[in-house]
Amino acid sequence: MRRPEVLSRIGVSQSTLANMIKAGTFPKRIPIGPRAVGWYASQIAECMEKGLKRQKTDG
Q1: What is the mean pLDDT of residues 3-7?
Q2: Helix (H, G, I), strand (E, B), or coil: what is residue 36?
Q3: If phi over 0 gives left and psi between -120 and 50 gives alpha, with beta otherwise, what is residue 32?
Q4: Is 29 helix (H, G, I), strand (E, B) or coil?
């Protein structure tokens, strides 16, 4: 998945995504070309699932 699709799927801004990547709370980017990166859809889904579980236990 490329960045626009990831942002749409997880519902955060570009800066929030950048902060999540920097903090290590988001899956690592996968190089898909000389100037392009993406993420595996399965890793995004897993990350979202972990976030939902965390919200349920916190709230």
Answers
A1: 95
A2: strand
A3: alpha
A4: coil
pLDDT at residue 56, as a whole number: 59
Give the contacts of 38 (CB within 8 A, at least 6 positions apart). 1, 2, 3, 29, 30, 32
Nearest-CA neighbor of 25 among 17, 35, 13? 17
pLDDT digits (tens, 9 = 90+) for 18-43: 999 999 999 999 999 999 999 999 99
| Tokens describing residue 44 | 């995004």
Q: Report the C-alpha gap between 45 and 39 in whole angstroms.
A: 11
Pseudo-torsion of CA 28, 32, 38, 44, nearest 10°?
-70
pTM of the model: 0.77
